[in-house]
Amino acid sequence: MPTAKLRASTILAEFHHAEAELVGKAVVLTDGKAGTVEHIWLDEWHGLRISIRGHEGKWPVSTIKLAETNLIAARAVSRGCRR
């Protein structure tokens, strides 16, 4: 497989992995916005961007402070439970 095609396939595979991991999950952003991830985009200038249900706009995926799996673990730690 030519190098360019292999790189493009790798990028698309990672994009679909991130999409499956984030869409439908609850997140909290660094600016305090919280909600469920509705869509994910691959932006040539900014990388991965997400939209959150109930909030207008798109945010870089790097602004996610906590995601649903992290929230569950954080609650368990705050209650003294260990996973």
Key traits:
2 helices; five-stranded antiparallel β-sheet; alpha+beta; 83 residues; 5 strands; SH3 type barrels
Structure description:
With 83 residues, this protein is α+β, with helices and mostly antiparallel strands. It has one domain: SH3 type barrels. The chain is 37% helix and 31% strand. The chain has two helices and five strands, in the order H-E-E-E-E-E-H. It has helices spanning 3-22, 68-78; strands at 26-29, 34-43, 47-52, 59-60, 64-67. It has a five-stranded antiparallel beta sheet. Strand 1 (26-29) and strand 2 form a beta hairpin. The longest helix is centred in the first third of the chain and has 20 residues, at 3-22. The chain is elongated, with a radius of gyration of 15 Å. The mean pLDDT is 83.
How does CATH name the architecture?
Answer: Roll
Structural class designation: alpha+beta
Please count the helical segments.
2
Care to count the β-strands?
A: 5
